[in-house]
Amino acid sequence: MVEIYVDADACPVKDEVLRVAARHGVKTWLVSDGGIRPVRDPMVEVVIVARGADAADDWIAERIGSRDVCVTNDIPLAARCLEKGAQAVKPNGEPFTPDGIGMALAGRNLMQGLRETGEITGGPRPFSKADRSRFLDRLEVTVQAAKRR
Fold first, then answer.
1. Which of 21, 129, 133, 146 minimizes the number of CB atoms within 10 Å of its CB?
2. 86: Cβ–Cβ under 8 A, 6 or more apart, which residues?
3. Shortest CA distance to 93 belongs to which of 58, 147, 148, 132?
4. 44, 21 in Cβ contact below 8 A?
5. Contact, 70 vs 62, CB < 8 A?
């Protein structure tokens, strides 16, 4: 059975995930360290983990299976999910892939170092309607593929 795990802290596409999951009858886990409203759908579980930098990531990585999908912006979490054979998708619709995760981790580490030294300031570009649409398309395709596995 396919399940979707959402790294729900600051995730801008929770509602979209729930729509796709409901259409496919897929169990969904919204994992956060707080601030998420309960969902009345019995196929959706809200999991509140202890506060901590990687608490939600650890919870997801310990439970995700090879047929499952993770929705996250967190590159190290995506790498852990891919290692288990799961699929991972960013909220903007961009998939994480086994071939690209090494470069993504290296780029993340480089950017973190540049931010720490003050060479680069600011964050990612604002989330757009096009990102939301791209995410919906990608999640639909990803869930369909996972169900065929």
1. 129
2. 64, 65, 66, 67, 68, 69, 70
3. 132
4. yes
5. no
pLDDT digits (tens, 9 = 90+) for 52-79: 879 999 999 999 999 999 999 999 999 9
Taking residue 37's Cβ as centre, other Cβ atoms within 10 Å add up to: 8
State how far Cα 92 lies from the chain centre: 10
Do residues 97 and 142 make contact, with C-beta atoms less than 8 angstroms apart?
no
- Are 135 and 89 in contact by the 8 Å Cβ rule? The answer is yes
HSE (CB half, 13 Å, CA atoms) of 36? 25
Pull the structure tokens for residue 121: 């300031």
- At the top level of CATH, the class of 3-148 is alpha beta
Structure tokens at 62: 């310990």
Pairing relationship of beta strands 44-48 and 87-89 according to DSSP bridges: unpaired
Q: Hey, which residues does 32 pair with through a beta bridge?
A: 48
3-7 and 69-71 beta bridge pairing? parallel
pLDDT average, residue stretch 115-138? 84
**SS3 per residue for 24-72:** HCCEEEEEECCCCCCCCCCCEEEEECCCCCCHHHHHHHHHCCCCCEEEC
